[in-house]
């Protein structure tokens, strides 16, 4: 297991270095002048030349890449051309809101996907309506689901708020659900949960179907296996057979799909955050793109890529824990 983990961590480091190289090359061949954008259009040629020298932009490309990687190791992603702040500081402010949204969405997707798979594989009575409704919702694009949810749950029913997080994040973690709960502010926790529920549901619907379909197919295949019939012949209940034998032997493909969907959720969060005015990196990226704030765009890309790679390492480890034969 240790050797497997070291192999996966080594591969993850290589992938992160490749991603950083791609980002660096794109940053280098960008037609925009970051120094002029940072100093302003009225900056003199002498000040631009001095700033380029100070930033090391006149150095050879390999030297600049080494400095770039060195800065990444020390947590330096450059200065945002739009906010005039370090990109790391901006991400520290915006990333917790996105991580909280995606985490809750991912948990909802896992729950809905598991219900979709188990109810379909075991032919639960009345579950066809649930699965059909979920499939119908998954056919709609996220922006349409978001707008429909706002019209229904905010404008018509008044059950859920339409925008924002409900409060400013001023706790140690930046996660409102955690900070308000640890401080005992249950009223603010309830408000944060209400603001989070609708965007989280919108973000979770499509991944839930993807995970549920793979998990259902795997469950149905395992339920036809000989060892399941043997367990049933010994008098084990359907629930005992499912929890002790079937799920563990079926969960591998679903874990792989869950890792992929987690990455897709971070990619799709941009649209959801804009519609719900969610103060996360999706909104930060949407504001940085029109002004060609490449340091901010590169920083977000690197952070999201690293999260995606790390998530897949975790999924690989969980697969080996579920099925040790994969470590052979």
TrEMBL record:
Family: Belongs to the binding-protein-dependent transport system permease family.
Species for this entry: Pararobbsia alpina
Membrane-topology annotation of the record: Multi-pass membrane protein
Protein name, as recorded: Dipeptide transport system permease protein DppB
Keyword terms of this UniProt record: Cell membrane, Membrane, Transmembrane, Transmembrane helix, Transport
Keyword presence, Transmembrane helix: yes
Record-annotated membrane-spanning stretches: 9-29, 101-122, 134-155, 196-215, 254-276, 296-322
The organism's taxonomic lineage, starting at the top: Bacteria, Pseudomonadati, Pseudomonadota, Betaproteobacteria, Burkholderiales
GO cellular component: plasma membrane
Keyword Endoplasmic reticulum appears in the UniProt entry: no
Domain of life: Bacteria
Entries under InterPro entries matching the protein: BPD_transp_1_N, MetI-like, MetI-like_sf
Stored CDD domains: TM_PBP2
Pfam families: BPD_transp_1, BPD_transp_1_N
Domain ABC transmembrane type-1: 95-319
Biological process terms in GO annotation: transmembrane transport
Subcellular localization(s) per the UniProt record: Cell membrane
């Amino acid at each position: 297991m240790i050797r497997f983990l070291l192999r996966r961590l080594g591969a993850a480091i290589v992938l992160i270095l490749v991603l950083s190289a791609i980002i660096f090359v794109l940053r280098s061949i960008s037609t925009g002048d970051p120094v002029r954008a940072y100093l302003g259009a009225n900056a003199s040629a002498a000040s631009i030349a001095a700033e380029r020298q100070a930033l090391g932009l006149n150095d050879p490309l390999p030297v600049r890449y080494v400095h770039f990687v060195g800065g990444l190791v020390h947590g330096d992603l450059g200065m945002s051309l739009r906010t005039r702040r370090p990109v790391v500081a901006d991400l520290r402010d915006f990333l917790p809101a996105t991580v909280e949204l995606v985490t809750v969405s991912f948990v909802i997707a896992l729950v809905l996907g598991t219900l979709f798979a188990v109810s379909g594989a075991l032919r639960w009575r009345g579950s066809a309506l649930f699965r059909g409704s979920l499939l119908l919702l998954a056919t709609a694009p996220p922006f349409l689901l978001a707008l429909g949810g706002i019209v229904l749950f905010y404008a018509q029913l008044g059950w859920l708020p339409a925008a924002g997080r409900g409060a400013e994040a001023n706790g140690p973690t930046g996660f409102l659900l955690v900070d308000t709960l640890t401080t005992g502010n249950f009223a603010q926790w309830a408000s944060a949960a209400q603001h989070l529920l609708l965007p989280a549901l919108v973000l979770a619907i499509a991944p839930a179907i993807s995970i549920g379909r793979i998990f259902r197919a795997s469950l149905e295949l395992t339920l036809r296996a000989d060892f399941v019939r043997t367990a049933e012949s010994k008098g084990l209940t359907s629930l005992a057979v499912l929890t002790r034998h079937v799920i563990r032997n079926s969960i591998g493909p679903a874990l792989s799909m869950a890792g992929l969907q987690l990455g897709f959720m971070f990619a799709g969060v941009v649209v959801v955050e804009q519609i719900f005015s969610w103060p996360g990196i999706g909104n930060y990226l949407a504001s940085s793109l029109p002004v060609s704030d490449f340091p901010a765009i590169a920083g977000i890309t690197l952070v999201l890529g690293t999260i995606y790679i790390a998530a897949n390492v975790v999924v690989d480890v969980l697969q080996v824990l579920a099925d040790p034969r994969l470590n052979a």
